[in-house]
């Protein structure tokens, strides 16, 4: 280091890691490192240079060894969710297939608006050894490679072609990941030679920095417009999305609802914004929702949507509401705030709800609130019956009910694609705020175990004595399960319920509901399978170091779950459920699905006509 110019000579990789070590954030009065560490699989594209830099930062940036790059990204997403987007993890992968394996997890983070830093190997910038191992050559554009495929699925993308570029690129990447309206994954392509090149970096570049997440102040005129629309409402309703939690605005949401006596419904991402017992919580809305929430949604005249992107499962493909209903959308992202002719309030949920609470002199009609609460009471009775044991085949709902009764209020529940997101959303009774992670932004099979591992790492940093509980079907388990091994290796205990219905049963249900014959979804219906057989999930989980048990009924499930709560390492519980019986049949809004307009099947034709009969209710908008 030269004292005159106050510079320090480092490789590009060393500088990246040193800079990350010095980024901090204040959370609830406690100063914490912004980056919680990373997930990595080394190869020739990142081991020699980035690996060397990470070796010397093990105490400050712990590196968790992944088993699959895609699952590393899912784990980083689960970590960011648990920390409410206030902290993130990086993922590092080698050049070629190691990096391209991260595409799906980048898309998941993008869809869910989650921060994640991708530090990925790239081809040599000099091109002297081209073509190198695993390089994807483009004959007409030598600058175009696999890493360019990340551009549609990340919020920030850069390829570092000179060591000095990180002085600008790293702060921009962090600014994107911490921006409440533009939050998402950031990608840095790191050519193998550039990682090892040196540069005399300004010493002040590595000075400690404490970040704060910006709260966007809502425009006064937009608050006034929203207030005027609400002041005349006869049947108002609030849709509470995941952004409520990311804004840490649960208290403000509750105060707003209670002050003005407005019923609240929850999206899938906002599933734990209110306790199940709160008198204004009318239930989950939409395709995987409740009769109670959907009943008031179709009658509401003014709808305040807070922190939601209003995706089709929330809106019933825009059939769940009166076509003339006025939306007021409170969102830090301008793109989301203006959807479907909404009155936009572009701003932080916490600040916007507080401003609206103070500005509004209004109470919803008591008969409207009474109607909403009556609908919720009926829904609660249905759920109670749905999750009860009864004399019927094992079902997802029943398994959910058993766990719900026995878990700690602060335990975290994780589910993703397939039939379980709908069943958890509809049947889970929220015991505490922010305890449910149903990944349905990208509806990505395989997220469950990997995302839970990442969530458990974060949870151990906050509430080490609580559990992370995973609901996963056999289809998702077969797609990505290797982080059972990761959880055991790292001492991050999970409780995993593998509910085996013999294939992709929920898609088989959709297939049948649209008049089609069962085909290629349940293992028994695959024409290329001469002799179907079940996987021994218990033995497989044991092989990865977990404690594993198989149960045959709900009573056994309860007893084994109690043992799992006392276990000191990952505990896998396997139970068969019926692929045809036991589905939650109530609460569903319409969902737009492409069905054949012509067919030789009478059943498919009739299903198409029936499906299309709801389309006239569809709200047209942008």
UniProtKB/TrEMBL annotation:
Which Enzyme Commission number(s) are on file for it?
A: 3.7.1.22
Spell out the Pfam families in the cross-references: TPP_enzyme_C, TPP_enzyme_M, TPP_enzyme_N
Matches recorded under Gene3D superfamilies: 3.40.50.970, TPP-binding domain (3.40.50.1220)
Thiamine pyrophosphate enzyme TPP-binding domain location is 438-574
**Residues forming coiled coils:** none
Enzyme group, top EC level?
A: hydrolase
Keyword annotations: Hydrolase, Thiamine pyrophosphate
Start and end of every Thiamine pyrophosphate enzyme N-terminal TPP-binding domain? Answer: 39-134
State one molecular function term (GO). Answer: 3D-(3,5/4)-trihydroxycyclohexane-1,2-dione hydrolase activity
Query: Which intervals hold domain Thiamine pyrophosphate enzyme central?
Result: 223-356
Which InterPro entries does this one have?
A: DHS-like_NAD/FAD-binding_dom, Myo_inos_IolD, THDP-binding, Thiamin_PyroP_enz_cen_dom, Thiamin_PyroP_enz_TPP-bd_dom, TPP_enz, TPP_enzyme_TPP-bd
- Hey, which family's this protein in? Belongs to the TPP enzyme family.
Q: Which PANTHER family has this protein been placed in? A: 3D-(3,5_4)-TRIHYDROXYCYCLOHEXANE-1,2-DIONE HYDROLASE, THIAMINE PYROPHOSPHATE ENZYMES
Full protein name: 3D-(3,5/4)-trihydroxycyclohexane-1,2-dione acylhydrolase (Decyclizing)
This protein's species is: Aliiroseovarius salicola
Question: Top-down, what is the taxonomic lineage of the species of origin?
Answer: Bacteria, Pseudomonadati, Pseudomonadota, Alphaproteobacteria, Rhodobacterales
């Amino acid at each position: 280091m030269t004292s005159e110019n106050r510079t320090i000579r480092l490789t590009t990789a060393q500088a990246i890691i040193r800079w990350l070590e010095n980024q901090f954030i204040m959370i609830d009065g406690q100063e914490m490192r912004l980056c919680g560490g990373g997930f990595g699989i080394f190869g020739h594209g990142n081991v020699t240079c980035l690996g060397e830099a990470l070796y010397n930062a093990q105490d400050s940036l712990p590196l968790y060894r992944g088993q699959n790059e895609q699952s590393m990204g899912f784990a980083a997403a689960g970590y960011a969710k648990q920390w409410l987007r206030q902290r993130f993890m990086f993922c590092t992968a080698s050049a070629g297939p190691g990096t391209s394996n991260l595409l799906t997890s980048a898309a998941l983070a993008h869809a869910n608006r989650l921060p994640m830093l991708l530090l990925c190997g790239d081809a040599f910038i000099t091109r002297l050894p081209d073509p190198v191992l695993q390089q994807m050559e483009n004959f007409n554009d030598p600058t175009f490679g696999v890493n360019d495929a990340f551009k549609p699925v990340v919020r920030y993308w850069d390829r570092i072609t000179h060591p000095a570029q990180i002085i600008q690129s790293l702060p921009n990447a962090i600014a994107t990941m911490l921006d409440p309206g533009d939050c998402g994954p950031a990608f840095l392509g790191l050519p193998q030679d550039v990682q090892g090149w040196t540069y005399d970096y300004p010493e002040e570049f590595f000075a400690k920095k404490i970040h704060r997440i910006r709260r966007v102040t809502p425009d006064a005129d937009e608050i006034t417009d929203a207030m005027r629309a609400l002041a005349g409402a006869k049947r108002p309703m609030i849709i509470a999305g995941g952004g409520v939690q990311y804004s840490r605005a649960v208290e403000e949401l509750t105060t707003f609802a209670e002050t003005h006596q407005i019923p609240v419904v929850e999206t899938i991402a906002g599933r734990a914004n209110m306790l199940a017992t709160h008198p204004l919580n009318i239930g989950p809305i939409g395709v995987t929702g409740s009769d109670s929430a959907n009943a008031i949604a179709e009658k509401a005249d003014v709808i305040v949507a807070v922190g939601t992107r209003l995706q089709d499962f929330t809106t019933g493909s825009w059939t769940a509401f009166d076509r003339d209903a006025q939306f007021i959308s409170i969102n830090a992202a301008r793109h989301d705030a203006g959807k479907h002719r909404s009155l936009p309030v572009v701003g932080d949920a916490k600040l916007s709800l507080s401003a609206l609470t103070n500005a509004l002199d209004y109470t919803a009609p008591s008969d409207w609130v009474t109607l909403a609460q009556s609908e919720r009471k009926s829904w609660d009775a249905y759920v109670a019956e749905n999750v009860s044991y009864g004399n019927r085949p094992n079902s997802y709902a029943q398994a959910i009910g058993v766990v719900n009764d026995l878990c700690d209020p602060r335990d975290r529940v994780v589910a993703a694609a397939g039939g379980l997101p709908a069943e958890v959303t509809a049947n889970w009774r929220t015991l505490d705020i922010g305890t449910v992670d149903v990944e349905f932004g990208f509806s990505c099979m395989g997220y469950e175990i990997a995302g839970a591992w990442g969530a458990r790492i974060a949870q151990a940093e906050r509430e080490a004595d609580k559990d992370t509980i995973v609901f996963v079907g056999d289809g998702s388990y077969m797609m990505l399960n290797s982080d059972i091994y990761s959880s055991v290796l790292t001492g991050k205990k999970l409780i995993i319920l593998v509910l085996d219905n013999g294939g992709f049963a929920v898609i088989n249900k959709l297939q049948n509901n649209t008049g089609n014959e069962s085909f290629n979804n349940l293992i028994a219906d695959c024409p290329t399978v001469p002799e179907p057989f079940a996987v021994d999930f218990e033995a497989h989980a044991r092989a990865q170091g977990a404690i594993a048990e198989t149960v045959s009924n709900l009573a056994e499930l309860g007893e084994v779950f109690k043992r799992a709560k006392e276990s000191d390492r990952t505990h896998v519980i396997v139970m068969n459920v019926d692929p045809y019986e036991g589905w939650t049949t109530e609460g569903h809004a319409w969902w737009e699905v492409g069905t054949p307009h012509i067919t030789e099947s009478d059943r498919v034709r009739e299903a198409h006509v029936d499906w299309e009969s709801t389309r006239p209710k569809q709200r047209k908008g942008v």
